[in-house]
Amino acid sequence: MVLSHAASDSDVSVHSTFASRYVRTSLPRFKMPENSIPKEAAYQIINDELMLDGNPRLNLASFVTTWMEPECDKLIMASINKNYVDMDEYPVTTELQNRCVNMIAHLFNAPLGETETAVGVGTVGSSEAIMLAGLAFKRKWQNKRKAEGKPFDKPNIVTGANVQVCWEKFARYFEVELKEVKLSEGYYVMDPEKAVEMVDENTICVAAILGSTLNGEFEDVKLLNDLLVQKNKETGWDTPIHVDAASGGFIAPFLYPELEWDFRLPLVKSINVSGHKYGLVYAGIGWVVWRNKEDLPDELIFHINYLGADQPTFTLNFSKGSSQVIAQYYQLIRLGHEGYRNVMENCRENMIVLREGLEKTERFNIVSKDVGVPLVAFSLKDNSSHTEFEVSDMLRRYGWIVPAYTMPPNAQHITVLRVVIREDFSRTLAERLVIDIVKVMHELDELPSRMIHKISLGEEKSEANGDNLMVTVKKSDMEKQREIINGWKKFVSDRKKTSGIC
C-alpha cells in the first residue's frame, strides 16, 4: 500500500523553490516582513534581483578591481568574520597591515632609516585616507598659528577643479575653504603656477593629483614642489603638499620609476593610495602614509584598551573587516615589483590597442595622455547630430558600461567618454569594444538628422492662422528632454519592426 503525504504550507522541502509560496508572493520592500522565510527562498529572491545588475568586468566606468585570483578569494572568505579593530585578538592581521604600510612607504621613497618604521594606516578607501591627511594638515597648521598668536579660524586648501568629490566633502565637513584652480580647454589638470599664486598664509596644503579621474593625467608635482619651495622662501611660510595618488600610486613606481612625485620631493608630507584600484584588491581598502612622525600630530591619535590591550587608532570609523588588508598583503608578496610591473605594462598596452582602434575610426578626439593612468578618454569630433551621452547609452545594449560626462569649470562645454583599463580588461575585450563602438556609430548615423537637429535646437515653427507668418516658439529644458526621449523611443521601436529579429 502506497502512503501519501499532504505537505503543509510550512514544509517547503518538497516544493520547487520557484513554486513555493514564499517566491510566488510579494515581499515588503521597505519594511521587515512579519514572518521568516526559508534560506533557499531568501537566497533565490535576492539572487534573482541581482541578476539585473551590470557585469562588473564590463563596467568600464570604475577604477576599482573586479577580479582576483581564486587563492586570494579563499583568504578573503576565511577572514571575512574578523573585525580588524580587535588588534589584540588578531595580532597577525595587525602585523600584516603594518607590513603593508611599510612596503607602500618604501615604494613611495619615504626617508626611513634601516630600523625605522613607517607612519601610516589602512582605511576603507582613499576618501577616508584623504580626510585623515587633511585633518593632520589642518591641526598642524592650527597649532603653528596658535603658537605664533595668529588667527587660525580660516584655513584653506588649494586644489584643481578636477579633484574627486571627496576633497569637496573634506572641505565642507571639516570647515576648510576649498580654493580651486579652474581648468581650460585642452588642459584638464591643475596648473602648478596658478595653484601657487592662490596660496596664502592660511593654506594648510596644496593637493596634487597623480591620476586625474577625468582623463588619467598626472599633475606635475615636481614643478609644484619647486614653485612652492620658492614661495615659502620668499614669504617665510612652510606650505606643504599632499599627493592624492588614489589611482596612480600603484602605477607610477612601476611604469615611470624616474618620475619625481613622491617623498623624494621635500614638501610632499603625505600620500594616499587606493589599494582597491591599481593596488589590485576588491573594493574596501585604501592607505595613507606620512613622511615622518612629525607630520601626524599626536593629539589626533586615540588610545583604547577595552579590547584587551593599549591600541593606538587614527581612523574615522571603528569596526571594519580584515579581509581587504589580508588581500592587499597577498598581492604585495604574490606579485612583487615584477608582477605589478607586468600587470601595469599589460594595462598600458591594452590602452594603446583601444586608443589606436578609436583613432582609426576618425570619429573621435583622444583627450587622455600617454603618461598617466591606463585609460582612454575621448570625445566626438562632430557632435552636431548626436552626443557622447547617446553613445554611452547605446553601448549599454551591448553590455558595456562606458560613462559620459562634462568637464568641470571652466571646461564644462567639453563632454567626454572614458574607458578605464583594468587588469582583467584583455586585448580581446579592447578589440571587441572598438567593434561595438563602430556599430553604435553606424546606428546613430541612421537616425534621421532632421529630427536630431530639430530636437537639439529645441525650437518648433508654427504657421499663424490666415497668413504665412512663421513663429518660433522656444521650448523649456523639460520639453527638450521629453522630445529627445520620445524621438529615441520611436527610433528604437522602428528598428525593432524592420530588423527581422524575433
Describe the SSE topology.
Elements: H1 21-24, H2 39-50, H3 70-78, H4 91-107, E1 119-123, H5 126-147, E2 156-160, H6 165-173, E3 177-181, H7 192-198, E4 203-209, H8 221-235, E5 241-244, H9 252-255, E6 268-274, E7 286-290, E8 302-304, E9 311-313, H10 323-361, E10 364-366, E11 375-380, H11 388-395, E12 404-406, E13 415-420, H12 427-445, H13 449-457, E14 459-463, E15 470-474, H14 477-499
Parallel strand pairs: 2-3, 2-4, 4-5, 5-6
Antiparallel strand pairs: 1-7, 6-7, 8-9, 10-11, 11-13, 12-13, 14-15
Helix pairs in contact: 3-10, 4-10, 5-6, 7-8, 10-12, 11-12, 13-14
What tags apply to this protein structure?
four-stranded antiparallel beta sheet, 15 strands, alpha/beta, seven-stranded mixed beta sheet
CATH class of the domain at 75-334: Alpha Beta
Radius of gyration: 28 Å
Biggest β-sheet description: 7 strands, mixed
Report strand %: 5-15%
By CATH, the topology of the domain at 75-334 is Aspartate Aminotransferase, domain 2
Q: Which segments are poorly predicted (pLDDT under 50) over 5 or more consecutive residues? A: 5-14, 450-473, 496-502
Find the CATH superfamily of the domain at 75-334.
Type I PLP-dependent aspartate aminotransferase-like (Major domain)
Number of strand elements: 15
Distance between the termini: 52 Å
How many helix segments? 14
Q: Roughly what is the average pLDDT, rounded to an integer?
A: 88
The SSE order reads HHHHEHEHEHEHEHEEEEHEEHEEHHEEH
Structural class: alpha/beta
Overall shape: globular
CATH architecture verdict of the domain at 75-334: 3-Layer(aba) Sandwich
Instruction: Determine the fraction of residues in helical runs and give it as a percent range.
Output: 25-40%
Q: Which strand order does the major sheet show?
A: 1-7-6-5-4-2-3
